[in-house]
């Protein structure tokens, strides 16, 4: 049976964007932090992370590889649907892509955001960006729907379960049994977590449900329940503003004091190996492990894992059926329900005051 994507005539991948050469770094950081109150010293420090990698973030190449994999998955499934890509902070910018979609005659597109969880940064801010880009293009811009959050979709979770198992297998036999699993995500201000989702606290709750589910699956596969925590990386902002803790490095110090000799770092908050992963985890946290005499193995991100890639088709066909008024079964794992299609009023509120956004009731 040929899969039915109607009423959609395209998929739009919506992402963060990153610099591709040294001259891009400062203008990119200006785009990211415009009006966000990030201290100058923090910006200089983050700029150095990019320069350490030749002024090029891996994120755009990761998105190109992901799009190629999704196109191949569509093709082999008989789904004839073009895939477009637009970013919040760097070329290709959302408005430019929407203009191209309009010229190509795209009337309606489903958007997949490269952020799996609810928060202002990972959800509403992208919805505001979509509103602004549609407004910029004006008459004839495609109508956009945002595909639901996928933190608890089996395509994402299964990929992370296997990545965790592979990372554990890499540890030395002498330390594996006592290894500690650190599920890592991007820190956000505690106030941003408190405002996330329709009732608040969704950012942390969603990560805890993914961590629990991976822990259960690892126990089934290995017969061992590993000690674990949810920890955070990439804290930004002004020092007096509270952000989610503990930081991954601080937690490793504590664990080392308690005699832990090995950690597996599982980046559940990130869907590909971008700068937070290759700098904050593979460079900084790895150096902390070295200093503490601990073994550290970092689990792979979902990247182009075939299950994660085919999840996109599943979410797209599910939403297409919903839009056609059909009943759907929504794949999900763990304690939380499958996420909503359209964000409820107030969901992931913008703490600087309301701004127009697409794909929500407000
Ligand atoms: C929750 C979350 C995700 C995960 C969800 C998702 O994936 O979207 C994420 C992803 C990313 N964040 C990224 C880069 C940056 N984030 C920054 C700043 C901030 N991030 C925040 C949150 C998040 N960020 C927040 C609350 C701030 C403070 C400023 C503000 O309130 O807006 C800054 C400014 C410098 C700094 O302060 O670190 C940079 C450069 C890149 C690109 C990496 C690359 O280039 O490879 C990616 C994928
Ligand atoms: Fe960020």
UniProtKB/TrEMBL annotation:
Key words of the record: Cytoplasm, Heme biosynthesis, Iron, Lyase, Metal-binding, Porphyrin biosynthesis
Q: Which gene encodes it?
A: cpfC
Residues binding Fe-coproporphyrin III: 57, 126
Name the EC number(s): 4.99.1.9
Q: Which organism is it from?
A: Nocardioides jiangsuensis
Catalyzed reactions: Fe-coproporphyrin III + 2 H(+) = coproporphyrin III + Fe(2+)
* The keyword Iron is assigned to this record: yes
User: What family name appears in the similarity comment?
Assistant: Belongs to the ferrochelatase family.
Gene3D superfamilies, A to Z: 3.40.50.1400
Q: Source taxonomy lineage?
A: Bacteria, Bacillati, Actinomycetota, Actinomycetes, Propionibacteriales
Enumerate the SUPFAM superfamilies for this protein: Chelatase
Name-wise, this protein is Coproporphyrin III ferrochelatase
